[in-house]
Design a protein that fits this description.
Layout (H helix, E strand, L loop, with lengths): L1 H6 L1 H6 L12 H13 L2 H15 L7 E10 L16 E5 L2 E13 L5 E8 L18 E4 L16 E4 L3 H4 L7 H17 L3 H10 L10 H19 L1 H8 L1
Parallel strand pairs: 1-5, 5-6
Antiparallel strand pairs: 1-3, 2-3, 3-4
Helix pairs in contact: 4-8
């Protein structure tokens, strides 16, 4: 970041360091600033402020939530000062492949596809255990994939109406030429169309921002960076509406 501020005028302009600044912040100053963000959990505040701005412009409805999680890899090498892997990162199996790292659990507005809640855990934590923490409490409906079966039993009443995907092996048994099955398939397609919005923030995180592997040791630091990136991703995802509103 220090080198980028020196080399790229657009970075200095974004950070408001182009006029009257005689000395740009060095690596140590930037590091201390990041530690302050983590200590006071300011990344969550930044995400909330961005969401408040987007909601004021009518981009977030907050009447429905889609929950999901994605795996973020962590370095498995032990060639470091401690001689060990990050103790807060864990190993889990997905399909026939093993992963080492963490999970980013998110709650997404079902209308706009924008993230309003983020929880970071080790990779071996079950998705259904975090579903309650991803709700903001104002939604009428909540959507989840088949891995969250039984989630409604973990949420205290009154809670939203949950629409959880049918397990794949059960869905494969449905016959589209039988009336009850045809209706069930239509319902599953509708739930899938809503749940698809949760994939967009993940794509922006991993493709536009290139965040496919954690860059710090520990869940607190990594989660703070992920929350910050989601706040920035909202500005990127809503850039056309925001620029159009500004004229």
């Amino acid at each position: 970041m220090e080198e980028a501020l020196h080399d790229m005028p657009v970075f200095r302009e974004f950070a408001k360091l182009e006029d009257g600044v005689t000395r740009l912040p060095d690596e140590t100053t930037i590091l201390r600033f990041r530690h302050l963000l983590e200590k006071h959990d300011l990344a969550t505040d930044m995400l909330r402020v961005v969401n408040d701005i987007l909601q004021a412009k009518g981009l977030m409805m907050k009447k429905g939530t889609v929950v999901d999680a994605t795996l973020i890899a962590a370095p498995s090498s032990t060639k470091n000062a401690e001689g060990e892997r990050d103790p807060e990162m864990k190993q889990t199996q997905k399909g026939n492949q093993w992963y080492f790292g963490m999970k980013a659990h998110i709650g997404v507005d079902a209308h706009s596809g924008l993230v309003h809640s983020v929880v970071g855990t080790a990779a071996n934590v079950n998705d259904v255990t975090q579903a309650g923490a991803l709700l903001h409490g104002q939604e009428d409906d909540a959507f989840a994939d088949a891995g969250d079966q039984g989630v409604h039993k973990r949420i205290e009443a009154p809670g939203p109406q949950w629409h959880v995907a049918m397990r794949p092996w059960l869905r494969r048994q449905l016959n589209a030429f039988i009336a009850p099955h045809f209706d069930a398939l239509g319902l599953e397609k509708w739930k899938a169309s809503v749940r698809a919005k949760v994939e967009h923030p993940f794509r922006v995180l991993k493709r536009q921002f290139g965040y496919t592997k954690v860059r710090y040791r520990g869940l607190t630091k990594s989660t703070s960076q992920i929350v910050t990136l989601f706040a920035l991703s909202h500005l990127w995802m809503a850039r056309r509406q925001l620029m159009g509103a500004r004229g």
